[in-house]
Model the fold of this input.
Amino acid sequence: MNYILSQLRISLIAVILLAVLLCGIYPVIVWGLSQILFPDKANGSLMKLDGKVVGSRLIAQNFTGAQYFHPRPSSAGDAGYDAASSGGSNLGPTSKKLIDEVKDRVAAYRKENNLPADAPVPTDAVTASASGLDPHISIKNAFLQAGRVAKARGMSEDAVKERIKIYTEGRDLGVFGEPRVNVLTLNLALDGKL
Done:
């Protein structure tokens, strides 16, 4: 009986010490180091204008006006772009509902960007990302929207395309992913707020 009680005491002390270490000390150290080494990323990569948070570079926002570049469609939440409901639609590639949604999005994209009926449309313009909150669009998608944005802003299409080039982000670590454009950053730059 003494052996069992001694083992129980040792186990209880080990659990308490590990809880203090892993649930208290370790998180505080990681939080402190992140605040010192990269505070912007540790706090959500928030974008502020005049001291007011206008968004995050990491989470898509819905821009609908003709003068703005539009992000990828979103399935996050009932109305989309809900950061509290991150996730895809769970519709598979053979889903009739998904096929119909994509067809409708293709037609709407061509119409709003004044493209011919047979013009290829970038996949990211008509499909949601897995999270439903991808803040980036492809370069091709951005260039196809440039004409509409330029016309709505009274700018030359070349000037808008130059902005796209300036705000294009390269591959991560020079290898991973594709070059892309952050929609929030580009739209704020076009508004003259960056």
In short: The chain has two domains: 2-40, 45-190. The CA atoms of residues 17 and 120 lie 60 Å apart. The longest helix spans residues 2-37. The chain has a mean pLDDT of 90.
